[in-house]
Structures are given as C-alpha cells and as structure tokens.
Amino acid sequence: MITDDQVKLLRHKRMKGLTQETAAAVAGMSVRSARKWETGSLPSEAKQPRTWRTRPDPFAEVWDSDIVPLLEADTKGVLQAPTLLAELQERYPERFSGKELRSLQRRVRDWRAVSGPEKEVFFAQDHPPGREGVIDFTHAAKLGVMVAGELLVHLLFTFKLSFSSWCWFQVAFGETYEALVEGLQGALWELGGVPDVLRHDNLSAATHELKRSGGRSLTTRFRDVLDHYGLKSTRINAGEAHENGVAEKGNDLIKKAVAQALVLRGSRDFASFSAYQDFLDEVAGRLNRPRLKSFEQERATLRELPSSPVPPYTTYKAKVRRWSTARIGRRAYSVPSRLIGHEVTMRQHANHLEVYYQDRLVETMPRLRGDQGARIDYRHVIWSLVRKPGAFARYRYREELFPTLAFRRAYDALRRFRGERADVEYVRILHLAASTFEANVEAALSVLLESGERFDYAKVKELASPEPIRVPRLCLPEPDLTVYDAEYLGRVS
To answer: Which of 195, 194, 190 is nearest to 284 (CA)?
Structure first.
C-alpha cells in the first residue's frame, strides 16, 4: 500500500528535477504507481470512509432500551464496558458470551464523545522564568530503601522551579516546621537565588486553621521565613491537590527516577543515612542535566539570597526533672543526670535534638518521630539504676532500656534462667555496656544466645570484658660489680 510519506517524497524528488523512474525508485514504488500519484490528492485523502458493517451489531436490540439509560444515569462517567456487559449477561442469560466486549467499548466511547457528561478541562499555564518555585512532601517508603539493613520509612521534601523544571530534594521524616524550613533553605542556597513566588499546599507546618472563617492562614514563624527571603506565598485550596500540578507531577517523576536509579545500583541497602542522601543528590544531578540551558536562563532572573539563612530549628526551655528527663510537649528525652534540677535549652531540628546548658552543647540525640513518646538513653540513668535494680521491673520507660534486639532477647532468656533475679542480672549487664563497649557486650550476648547455654552477668563479663592477664613482677637485686671486678682482675694478674 502506498503511503502519504512515499507520495510526498516522490513529489519532492520530482520538484528537484529527478526523472520519474529515479524518483519512483527513491520513494520505493513502481513507475506505474509514480504516474498515478505524481499529482492529485494524497492516498489518505483519496480513501473513502467505510459506511457499512462487516458483521451484525450484537447490541442493536438492547442499546437504546438497556444501555443508553444506564449511561445517561451515570453523570460522572464511572461505568465501564465490562460492567455494562456483565449487566447485560444478567438480564439476557446466554445471549452474550463476553466476546462482544471490544465492540461495546467502542460503542460506549463514541456515545460519550457525543452525548456523555462534560469532562474536566485542565488549563495549560505559562510560567515566566524566575517567578515560581513549588514545594511539597511526598511519601517514599515504597521505594524500599534500607539503611544498615532496616527499612527506611521516610518522606522526600521536593523543590521545583516551574519554568525550567530544575529540582532539588532531600530526606524528611515528617511534615514538620523544621523539615520544611531546612528543605526550603537547602534548595534556595543550592539554587543560588530566590524566585518571586512560593507555591505550596496547606500543610500544618506552614498554615493554621482560622476559627472564624474556617479557612487557613500562614503561621507567624513561617511567614517570617518567607519575609526573610522576600517570597510571596500562593496556596492551593484545601483538598484540591490538582491545583499544585507542577509539584505533584514533579514528585512522580522524582520517585520514578530514584526507583530506576536504585535498580541500576543493584542494591537498595545503604551503609548510612548520609550515603543515601548522597545517592539522592546524584539522582537530582542527572535529572537536572538536560535542563541546564533553561535553568541558566532562569537563574539569571532570580533575586539575590539574603546574607544568612534562618536558623532551621525551634528552641524550647525545659527544666530537667528528677527522672533525668526534659520534655518537649508530650515527649520526654533523657539527659545526663548531672543536669537534674537545671534549666536547659533544647533546639529541635528536623531530624535531631540538641541540648544546651549555659550555651554549651552537652548532648545530641535523634528526634522522636510518629507516635514515639520517649527516648531514654540507658547511659543517662544506668549509674543510679545499678544501685536500685528493683526499680527496673516497673520502670515507666523500661522498653527504652533495650538498646538492641540482642539485649531484649538476653533479658527474656534471663527470665527463663533466673526468674525474678533476671532484673538484677540484666541491669548489671547494661551497666557493663555503659562502662565498656556496647558492641562488645552485644557480641557476647549473641554468642551465648546462639549456644543456648545458661548465662548470667559473670559469663557475659568474661566474654565481653575479660580480666587482663596479670604478669608477675620480678624483683631482682642489683648485681654487685665489685665481685666481678675482683674475679676478673685476679685472673689477669
């Protein structure tokens, strides 16, 4: 069959002065076909539409009476052809075999194109360079990333320029104010400039609900961050995610790019959290490489950054209670017991917490996430607990005193071996871990658990921290050289 492209090529070559025979050979057709198609309409224009059926219409008798009423009642266009065919099979048993599905799909498609409900229209937007950046959080647990052998349940904070599609993203563990500010500032300082507008949704870290109107407004501290950078805020309406289409599409492309890069890497396990973030930076670099030309055009229109970033943390004052804990809201963090009774300053970052006393950093710890209510470091309390081991049995935060699974299993084994004495033995083992090396104690516990033998604190200490071999000290008298001299001189003389 001669195509339009062949005919166009034939005519182009004839206009260039080639003979009919040569032009026909170049276009891949015979000379006879070349004579036919050298002038006139194209093959697609000459083809007459088919107006007849090649087989009887299986829905001729039921279309108007059964199918059309169902389609008219479906004002949202939800019904699909398989559902309609199943309904017809219920109404007319053995009349429809199921092979008519493709015909019904075409009929439904054509009916909706002419008589169906109106569809939602999306409006393409023009994005001038330097005008808008969009931010969002997107769930990334389905990527299956592992850090040190454990599944990393996390989000990605994403930033994207609407004009050039330049993107930047980093790991986050919650839609918190600190994660929002850290992500936004990380993107802006990596970008090296500031757009005019920041587009985002109504996340609680940036907005709060107005009691009178029921709407949402920017929180004071997030507004201060935007004012620091001279950014104007535009937000979508609540529950209308499609209004932030640039961010939603960007999130999808970013996660697909990360997923494919993980496949090429050959492993989803990373040695550390920082190694995973370095991997994400590489993915972002590959995504941005094809956009360098438009990005350079956009960067020239960005405004200058301020002289310094905003501190990406929230400061709290707390008094350390007699339980050696300080609280932020409903969450308790243990601190060194020497701070009991003192007021400390706690700086809550996106992923960690810093404790200051008199402007001196005294402790850094991971930030609690999700529904976690307490983080107790056994090293902060073990020195008192080892003197009062009976307190372990009903300690409110007892589960926090199992630093790893091996310690938990060891305690369960001690309960079987030692009964009520298990609390004392376990507290002494925990004290050993705090005063020596936790890794050595954990390794010793793993060996003992694997062997299945009964053990106690003494056996754990023997494996984890054996007593050094005592080398006897020899006390030899100082040699009398006069005896040697007399013997030697006597022989010489």
So the answer is: 190
Specify whether the CB–CB gap between 77 and 116 falls below 8 A.
yes
Contacts of 10 (CB under 8 A, 6+ apart): 23, 24, 26, 27, 29, 34, 37, 38
Number of other residues whose CB lies within 10 A of the CB of residue 426? 26
pLDDT tens digits, 84-104: 999 999 999 888 988 999 999
Six token digits for residue 472 = 């006897």
- What tens digit of pLDDT does each residue of 166-200 get? 999 999 998 899 999 999 999 999 999 999 999 98
For residues 401 and 381, give the distance between their C-alpha atoms in angstroms, rounded to a whole number.
Answer: 10
Residue 187, number of CB atoms within 10 A of its CB? 21
Strands 331-334 and 374-375, bridge-based pairing = parallel
3-state secondary structure of 238: coil
Structure token pair of residue 100: 């008519």
SS3 category, 405: helix
In the beta sheet, which residues pair with residue 303? 194
Buried (b) or exposed (e) across 214-226, using 16+ Cβ within 10 A? eebebeeebeebb
Pair 191, 183: CB distance under 8 Å = no
User: Mind giving me the DSSP string for 90-119?
Assistant: HHSTTT--STTHHHHHHHHHHHHHHHSPPP
Q: What are the backbone dihedrals phi and psi of residue 362, each rounded to the nearest 5 degrees, phi first? A: -115, -15
Note the pTM of the prediction, 2 decimals: 0.70
- Report in angstroms the alpha-carbon separations of 23 from 9, 14, 45: 8, 6, 22
| Residues in contact with 185: Cβ distance below 8 Å, sequence separation at least 6, in sequence order | 309, 310, 312
- For residues 351 and 300, what is the distance between their CA atoms, to the nearest angstrom? 34
Closest CA to 40 of 8, 17, 13: 8
Q: Read off φ and ψ for residue 423, nearest 5 degrees.
A: -60, -45
pLDDT at 10: 93
Of 143, 113, 480, 185, whose CA–CA distance to 280 is shortest?
A: 143
> Going by C-beta distance under 8 Å and a sequence separation of 6 or more, which residues neighbour residue 466?
none
User: Cα–Cα distance between 61 and 80 in angstroms, integer?
Assistant: 20
